[in-house]
Structure formats: structure tokens, C-alpha cells
Amino acid sequence: MTSNLEWAGRVGDVWAREWQRTDRSFAGLTPHLIGAALALAPEKGKAIDLGCGAGETTIALASARPKLEVAGVDLSADLITIARWRGAGHANLTFRVGDTAALKPASAVDLFLSRHGVMFFDDPVAALSAIRRAGTPDARLVFSCFRDPGLNPWSHLLDDPGAPAPAASPVYAPGPFGFADRDLTAGILTRAGWVDAEAVPVDYTYIAGAGDNPVDDARLFFSHIGPAARALADVAPDQRAVLFDRLDTALAAHESEGQIKFPAAAWIWTARAGDTA
């Protein structure tokens, strides 16, 4: 579990250092998410990117809708600094540090967007309810999240050989796979007052490493971000070398065309605000 304090501090700092690799890992998914958002985004009005990170999706939306006021919000000041640098020159684009579970926009929001940024709330029903109340009566929500961890082999590279692939949990816990279970997520959205919720499965290629030595590049990425990073941090120092050897072997098995590639699976959810009374 990753807390708000960690996102605002240590975890956010790590993601800020790794923003280029993170964007690369989502490169096969992002066009699908932006396409879903643009299908619902008004030409004018207001949109907020929840947990915008280094701003890739926020900038893409602002570029495609130049008359739409687009804001990115994230707990990490370091990520927001990068996002502001990347988004300079877009008159309809702003970024700010803040908690997306406690939005207080100056005017109602027409569209909420998030790329894998809504699975970390301590209380997702309360958070998504607050987000809904910050929207217009017909506000739309579009977000992506991972599907079953068993369909995302990059997420369990350090599991014992022969261990069964992990499955999506029907019980919510904050984390990258918090919304992996479709029925669980649908129930959370319903209780939070969102209606007409639909989930579209998207399969894509997760690029973890590239460059002159893609295994080294992927090892550095997974050493800092994701389940492997936590396992490496928690293991006894005298066992760390064993885990790194296991990680390198797993990464090398997925090298193709000078990149480390994994199959990956996500949901793209869309929903509409229900009665706020």
C-alpha cells in the first residue's frame, strides 16, 4: 500500500526520476485512453487529469482540445515541476500540487481523466464521490487501470518459479491492481454515484527496457518502480544478489528487437455522473 505521504514524498520523487521510462511503459496504452477521453471531451469547458504524474496525458488532452481548460493535479511536487516544464506554451493548460480526493475547483468540471491514478485511494467510494460532486451534472469520468495481475507478467517477475500467477482480488486494497477486478470496480463506481459505467479491455505491449543494454535499462526501471522494487527493498541484503540474478534472467527472456517487452492488460473505464443530491 502506498500512502498519500509517500506519493507526496519518496514515491513521487522516484516516479519523477523515472518519468521517461514510465511514459514508455504506457506508450501502447496511452493512445487508447486519450481516444476514449476525446470521444467524451467537450470542445469548451473544464477537464482535470487526476494523478497526472509528469503530464503526458494532460498535455495530450490540452493539445487536442485547445479551447478546453485542462488542469493536471498530482500529490508529487517533483512530478508537477516536470509536467509544467513539458507543458509550457499551452495557454489552456495548468498543473498544481493537490489531493485528487479533495478537489475544490473554482467551477464545475466536465471531464475527469486519469491514467492509472485512481487505484490508490484509502477509501475509493468517498474519493470518487467527492470527484463526482466536483463535476457538472453530466460530467464524464475516463480512467485506465491494470487488469488481472496474471495478465501482466512484468508484475510478478520475482515470484518463485512454478508459483501460480496471482489473480485479481475481489476485495479492494490500494495499489496498482486495486481496480483489477471488474465487478469490484463497477460496484465502487455505483456506490460513488457514477452511472452507465463501462469497461473496455485493452491489451498492449509494456516496454520495460531499451537502448544499448535493454536488460540493464529494464533492471534499473524495475529496481525503482513496481512490485519488483518493493521485493528488492524488503529482502535481506545477502539475498539481494540472488533476486537481481533472477530478475536479469526473466528480463533477458523477454528481449526482442532490442527492447524488453511484456504483454500487458488494462481496463479503460468510462462513466457518467449520476444524481448529486
Keywords for this structure?
disordered N terminus; 8-stranded mixed beta sheet; alpha/beta; 277 residues; 38% helix
What would you say this structure looks like, in words?
With 277 residues, this protein is α/β, with parallel strands linked by helices. It is built from 11 helices and 8 strands. It has helices spanning 4-8, 10-17, 19-25, 30-40, 56-64, 77-86, 124-133, 182-191, 214-224, 227-234, 237-252; strands at residues 45-50, 68-74, 93-97, 109-115, 135-146, 194-209, 255-256, 259-273. Strand 4, helix 7 and strand 5 form a beta-alpha-beta unit. The longest helix is centred in the C-terminal third of the chain and has 16 residues, at 237-252.
Element pattern in H and E: HHHHEHEHEEHEHEHHHEE
The rough form would be described as globular
Name the quaternary structure. single chain
In this structure, how is the largest beta sheet organized? 8 strands, mixed
